[in-house]
Specification:
Layout (H helix, E strand, L loop, with lengths): L1 H31 L4 E6 L5 E4 L8 E5 L1 H11 L8 E5 L2 E5 L2 E2 L4 E5 L3 E5 L8 E2 L15 E2 L3 E4 L2 E7 L2 E4 L3 H8 L11 E4 L2 E11 L6 E4 L2 E11 L16 E11 L5 E3 L4 H7 L3 E12 L4 E5 L7 E21 L7 E22 L17 E22 L6 E13 L8 E4 L1 E9 L32 E6 L4
Parallel strand pairs: 2-4, 3-5, 4-7, 5-8, 6-11, 7-12, 8-13, 11-14, 12-15, 13-15, 14-16, 15-17, 17-18, 18-20, 19-21, 20-22, 21-22, 22-23, 23-24, 24-25, 24-26, 25-27
Antiparallel strand pairs: 1-28, 9-10
Subcellular location: Secreted, Cell wall
Keywords: Cell wall, Glycosidase, Hydrolase, Secreted, Signal
Family: Belongs to the glycosyl hydrolase 28 family.
Length: about 475
Amino acid sequence: MRIEGMRLVCGLIVVIVLLNSKKSESRRSKSGSRSNSFEYNAINCRAHSASLVDYGGVGDGKTSNTKAFENAIRKLSEYESKGGAQLYVPAGKWLTGSFNLISHFTLYLHQDAVLLASQDMNEWPVIKPLPSYGRGRDAAAGRYTSLIFGTNLTDVIITGDNGTIDGQGAFWWQQFHKKKLKYTRPYLIELMFSDNIQISNLTLLNSPSWHVHPTYSSNIIIKGITINAPVTSPNTDGINPDSCTNTRIEDCYIVSGDDCVAVKSGWDEYGIKFGMPTKQLAIRRLTCISPYSATIALGSEMSGGIEDVRAEDITAINTESGVRIKTAVGRGGYVKDIYVKRMYLHTMKWAFWMTGNYGSHADSHYDPNALPEIKGINYRDVVAENVSMAARLEGISKDPFTGICMANVTIGLAAKHKKQPWTCTDIQGVTSGVTPQPCDLLPDQGPKKITACDFPPENLPIDMVKLKKCSYTMKHA
């Protein structure tokens, strides 16, 4: 089984490399001979299109294009009710500060376009903290607006021919480590209170903090995204759906200094009061490298609730843990109905990790009687190799994590592994066909119960959304 697991992992990696190579060749063949013509798949096509250079954009990597983006988007807003508009960013290096999107709008990046985030703090407006968090993460005051930002929008697309958005985060990481930040660092992409969102076919680099943050939003497709940040960079999470409904994340490759995907819904009393869960989330064909964090994290800010999360065909290499649940007394909320299948892990500290004593609080006003509810956590068809410890499962005294189910799981321990492969406290559940033998709190039900931990058979509503092929010809590239 261990050899077979290694073959599965290696085979999947080879497939990913080949697919990426073929995609690159396809992109070159489509845009190489006719660089002013391009096509892509999207939730909606646009009746009008313009280039950033039409509004004074200069792609020399030195000139600020913040005003060019603002002017272009302001002009294109005239077409919101007339078939929508697209802003094309051609090849070049486009330095810019934060700018806001509009509804019925597409931002499209050429394959050789690079958006460079400005390091001039004057180009990053400060806004209020998120209402479900009550304060900023880096500082109690407000937060810098994300590089690409939007709120109260509908029908928004950020896509390209694998164009690049570089957050140039080293400047911000230094400010963070030196404790010089007055406000919380910006994210690369953030959309709030919005509906019908697509973020696809882009390379995102070196965000000051989180890379992609949809929040208080619904009907979201995130597909074909490559994210790369140093594994030592602080809080550079990959994709963080936060109080969102009906989301699918597919075909993404993430290397980061924090969780590759972190599912959230608010912090302590602020998240409880705001009361907006993350639910109906599908994560498919994700590849993650994050030596100090999780492949998929649920929490720790989960006070609005997390439910109906479905993850499948997940690959993690040199990552701290597979799927991790993070919560604490005072969080309140819940994490329930979580389903994970076909997960391939190699070189991990823990295959499974649940923590009931994680993280700090927003302030001293949290309710110490607000206990989180963790139940219905299902894993099946998991192969792991070179793992230091199979599982670390730590519930909360008098508030156990219940309904844990693991089936058809094989974990190959590293040569230097922990003497005790499982530690379990304040949990309850069952297992079937799990190696090495789990702790006594997860009794084996025998091979006849291998059908346990099954995925729900029905699709999520977001799975019914089909993309259209959109074609455009620009007067100049």
